[in-house]
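Quick one: structure tokens for this chain, please?
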Amino acid sequence: MTLQKLLSLLIIAGLYSCMNNAPNNASENVLPTDTVWGTRTAATEITEPETNDFYFPADSLFIAKVLMTGPFHEDEVWPTAKDENWMGLFKSDNGYYTAPTRIRTTKVFDPVLDEDSLVNKTGWQVEAINQDSCLLLVSPLSFLKAKTVEPLLLKRDKIYPGDTLSFHYSGTDYKLYATGTKKKVQHDPLWYEVWNYRLYLQASKNGKLLEELLVAQPRFDDQMISIMFAGDIDGDGFLDLLIDTSSHYNMISPTLYLSAPAEKGHLLKVAGQHIAVGC
């Protein structure tokens, strides 16, 4: 999706789209700190800094289609989606797993765009045939197989500028950290205004320390980058991530990062993204 289309979506007043949220993350093996690890500078707190207008990732990097389940606007789901094969990330009573699935798409009443008509149904309802809770749907990739997925339960799902989150997963030590500028919101001690945000992942792979840029956003509108799921989704023994990269409170944009297709010298490859205007 282009930036122009993204901006046009934000003009739409509200949406009934209710997406499946990933579980609240918590873990005892996380060692959070309040400093940035490496050569990055910690965040400074100023009133209104200049922004650099650097966004990442871009849709030109995507290698797969990504889709959520739930109700959506007409232009957020394509008509042939129901005819395509999908690999789903599911949660059952026994844990998380990936499995092939088909989906159903049904035309439904959009309470925002169809409010002046009692006949038109322009919205989409997307459902996976699999009855377990579906976190995400991905178009088939050769390395994605049906398997159980051991989740990494992070202590925090939001990493603010100046924060570092250290953890161990499947034999590898990782660090998530963020740079940028932040300003505390007085009425909410747990919330910051953030500018020029960048989120990084660091880890050693094949004996070499690597750093991966995951997200860059110059500004936010009452929103913050959030880790929705962490675990080995593609089965190569390394960490994969599902991150909501939205910068606007009325949007959600689950973005999938996979390690199996990552190029040499990289930890992850951004696989795909689904953008929808929120409720």
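The longest helix spans residues 3-11.
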